[in-house]
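In the previous chapter we treated chains in isolation. Here, by contrast, the input contains two separate entities that must be folded as one system, with a combined length of 552 residues.
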Amino acid sequence: MNFQFVLDNLAALTVTGLTQGSIYALVALGYTLVYGVLRLINFAHSEVFMIGTFTTTIIWAALGFGVGAAAPSTLGVLGLILAAVLAAGAASGATALVVERVAYRPLRKRNAPPLIFLISAIGASVALMEAAGAITNRQPRGMPSLVFPKVQFSIFGADVTNLQLGIIFSALLMWVGLDTFINRSRLGRGVRAVAQNPEVAALMGVNKDRVIMLIFILGGAMAGAASVLYDVKVGLTTYSVGFLIGIKAFTAAVLGGIGNLRGALLGGLLLGVVENYGAGVFGNQWMDVVAFLVLVVVLLFRPNGLLGESLGRARA
Amino acid sequence: MLLELKDVSLAYGRIVALHGISLTVDEGEIVALIGANGAGKSTTMRAVSGLRPVLKGSISFDGQDITKMRADLRVIRGVSQSPEGRGIFPGMSVRENLEMGAYTRRNRPEIDKDLERVFGLFPRLKEREKQSGGTMSGGEQQMLAVGRALMSRPKLLLLDEPSMGLAPMLIQQIFDIIVEINQQGTTVLLVEQNAQQALSRAHRAYVLETGRIVKEGTGAELLHDPAVKDAYLGVA
């Protein structure tokens, strides 16, 4: 155990943690939205993220930024990121929508018990993952570095790079957009109405099926955006990339309070930071162990997560 | 005829709650459904608003068969319900709850006009505009539920137990407001335990017993009917 290392590098570990946590937070939004409205853990959400990572590489290659390509100009970088966010957001949103249509809606129409949804969710996840594995021959797919990390400034002795800043800032921006949409817009109000009382929401003229489609698309689009940030950061993806990220993001959602958009953000950032501290103390191989231990400990004291639920507040 | 139920039966699982109910509501009327607990009053409301599918029979509204129409589409046609137990969205403010009532509408100036109208009918709601719906008193929630149901500017307003849990003075007040809403041009179908109030304010009424209509007449007729007096008015 190396506490001295963590103390010496606290600021640096925090910055890396926040960067990783931003990606968890964006993916966590998808779990939280779906759970808030349907009381369902959409396990296929990890594959929605995976589809995004591949879409990003495909769109970049199509735009001439394949393996071996020269580093583009600043404007080129922004253009490639924007194109990737749009394409991956659309592809992930569409994947989420298809999962809803194929794996959940038929069950909903037949009033299936919750356990059946869970099985269907796991099935959809495995099917998507294995399909991607078959298509890619289980080979990882690399991409050229889009952003070369350059130190922008130092804070408490920690160097902060443009890449880290960009990832954290983009994630916050996406989160603010989603939170504003859910809390301020008419459609967002419809989402909250269904989460709080689906029957009364119908009496207000809210089409539940449309709300469900909306949350899958929104959650999928957030995972798509996260997948672009992941690709920029890691530069490599594979068919099973969603598994660990998905579980971590789900953990983040539960940690913050599932069904709570602010909880997803808090849980994601916190999980990223804590697992980096853990890696610092015990070594990298213990990172995931620490992450899940933290979850268990937090849930022992706050079973509803740090912030509790808000989307479907006070629904028994 | 604004609303017509023809021989409507409805079941919860194997328990049949309505055995072939027929009733009509004309434009401009206040019609009351009275009966004991479990007689099928709220179930009838759920059939009209579309929350429960009917087993057989038909429901027509404003010249259209709506028997199989989804609940949210009935709202657009002009049916609005203040549900049993009020159904206030606890995590939304009073204002947001009222906005939910206008969910199907897009014309902002018209919605604002109706907000003013509701605040005029229930000044209390204006005072509590920013308060969260879940923290309101029972009486205030009832006002909010009725006000919210008005926000869709319905042709037919369904009120399920508007006086439930209210102090006697508030009961008077809410019935005064129901009559006022009716005089402003909204047809009302009302379910009530408080038969005295309901019958004295309604144009016509139906008496339900174990899922069947056993009596109908004008409010005044039923108010003076010995059997009704005996069973529902608590005076011999």
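The first helix of chain B runs from residue 41 to 49. The mean pLDDT of chain B is 94. Compare these points with the single-chain example from earlier in the chapter.
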